[in-house]
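Posting this for the archive.
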Amino acid sequence: MRYNSLASFAIVLGLLVSSAKAETSAFPNIPTDDAQGAPGASRIIPITAAEPQPAASESSTAYPAKAQGDEAASPPPATDPPADKPWTMPQLKTLDSLGILTTGWLEQGVTFNALSPHDGWNGPVATNDLSNNYELNQFWLTFVRPVKTDGCGFDVGGRVDACYGTDWRYGDSLGLESKIDAANGLYGLVIPQFYAEVGIDDLTVKIGHYAASMGYEQVPAPANFFYSHSYALCYSEIILATGIQADYKLSENWTINGGINTGWGMFEDNNDKMSFLGGAKWHNSSDTTSVSFQIIAGPSDPAGENHLYDYALVFKQQLSKKLLYVAQHNLGGAETAAGGYGIWYGLDQYLIYTINPKLSAGARVEWFRDEEGTRVAGIGNVNDGWMGAPGFAGTFSEVTAGLNWRPCANLVVRPELRWDWYGGTTNTAGQLPFGDGLHASQFLFATDAVFTY
């Protein structure tokens, strides 16, 4: 049920501020590899779960318990660690005795669209896709036992994630959420991850349903600077995989990974053919520079005949103690059922500056090209969402500027301004991407609040 509930948003935000007593600026210990699932290759592919990124003025990374061999995931913190720790939810004694951590967060927000579209959607923008409406995006709970061998020995672990909210619509996987959630429901439950993991010296292997780890932005709200997400994340990257994945730490600076899975958004294999996902990560000795390259290739259509590939190249540079620069390039292509071939590619750039321990500023500039109009389309034909038909053969660009304000250790408020514009053909329904299919650009003001526990 859609509703204008700014009052509810304000009330809950006020309760969160009053309930968080600590006056520090770090997130709690939320482990790595969170991500929601991805829909099929012909639908919007939402936020990814790649290398964890700092949310600018964090004094610790958003997901400190990194997967073994992923030490290059984040640049060094921009501020010194705070004296006080954030509040964390009480741990169950039985789980705690087994080394299992219970944690999570609540994300809610609202997006205002200057066009006030009658259909109520912000076009291809995801996952804050409701215009002039409140969304409870993520109510997230995680149970995790991180694998830790310190490069020598043997350990076992695993994790289970569950998330309720409007973001579920972008995370349903064939044979999983498609069986537990009603189609075309604005709110629902998604199970982003559940896997077992084994560590032997510098090698870790996971089997099950897990984050695919490709680009810079992620599914978990605390791991991102902005409320809205990039086109690269939404339309160019696999988010979840189901299969087996190995990570191996070659040295203090190099990590390689690889594995096979059932394909994009497939919990149940739809064609009995596997896809490959793998790549390499490097960081310098001071952790101020890092590079990641990840690629996926394989068929995702029911017949298993139309091959798809996509890669993400991410470069991070800590320009100073307070200033972080990130650049990401994506390139992908896929055969179509009609015998053609669709190609997409783009470039994202980020600057994140720490003003003080409680306030940081950031900007994102993106250029995304859907060459044959095969990638950018709505989810409204499957789930409750924008109904945009495919066929936008052209270029999508966006500029986003925002702030992160941390009034207390467990809470971050993220206001942002975003301008999107499009140059290219109308889609197969004769529509443009914004404002009820009538406009080639739009202006958004959005803000959300993320409370971690």
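Residues 106 and 344 are 33 Å apart (CA to CA). The first helix runs from residue 6 to 19.
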